[in-house]
Amino acid sequence: MLTESGLTLIAGTMFSGKSTELLRRIKRLEASDYNIQLFKSKIDDRYESNHIVSHDGFKEEATYVMSVDEMIANLKEDTNVIGIDEGQFLESEVVQFCDQQAKDKIVLAAGLIKNFQDNYFQFKDEKLDMSELLRIADHLVYLNAVCTYKENGHRCRKEANRVQRFVDGEIAPFDDGSVKVGGKEAYQPRCRSHFVQYQDVLNRLESRL
């Protein structure tokens, strides 16, 4: 059994460097005697179909999968390090998979902790959300982006732990759907002050008080 076994969750908002941090840790482990496998959901098809690619261009070869079952089917017996990018796009079974594999392997899972509505990101089957991976993680790496809100020619540049979705330059409606793969043309990181909260969320919070 590996003494370093366990689950590290690399979480945060878009443009915070989650994939870069995952690949940095994988690169470090490659220098040691580890058998490494990387997985990524096929839902995110913005880059090459056989690599994990960060926004800043770093990349590592990976197996693209449509489901947790497909990930299990491709897992090799001698693998002792598992990396998962964009884990929020898989089914809720990814929680059980990570929990089991982390007993005797190093598991690194990167993913969006919240969606554009500022709610925990639900997995593909909508049974569980990313808070469950947060609950079982042995180590948490939480990354913030930089707020890109611009006013009078000046950018905010405060730490951003939220992301605003846009459609044709306007803030996307609340019911726009949680899964919509995109880049800077559709999403912008926002700090607490400049994130425009949805009234649907505010109404739900008020009803609980």
Task: Give a verbal description of the structure.
22% of the residues lie in helices and 28% in strands. It has 209 residues and is an alpha/beta fold. The termini are far apart.
Based on the model shown, name its key terms:
22% helix, 28% strand, six-stranded parallel beta sheet, three-stranded antiparallel beta sheet
Detail the topology: elements first, then pairings.
Elements: E1 6-12, H1 18-30, E2 36-41, E3 51-53, E4 59-61, E5 63-65, H2 68-74, E6 81-85, H3 93-101, E7 106-112, H4 131-136, E8 139-143, E9 145-146, E10 150-151, E11 154-155, E12 159-160, E13 162-167, E14 170-171, E15 187-190, H5 199-208
Parallel strand pairs: 1-7, 1-8, 2-5, 2-6, 6-7
Antiparallel strand pairs: 3-4, 9-12, 10-11, 13-14, 13-15
| C-alpha-based Rg, rounded | 18 Å
Please trace the helix and strand order, writing H or E for each element: EHEEEEHEHEHEEEEEEEEH
Main β-sheet description: 6 strands, parallel
Give the spatial strand order of the biggest sheet.
Answer: 5-2-6-7-1-8
| Structural classification | alpha/beta
Number of helices: 5
Total strands:
15
Shape: globular
Percent of residues in helices comes to 10-25%
Strand content: 25-35%
How far the N terminus sits from the C terminus, by CA atoms, comes to 48 Å
Q: Which ranges are low-confidence, i.e. pLDDT below 50, for 5 or more consecutive residues?
A: none
> Mean pLDDT across all residues, rounded?
88
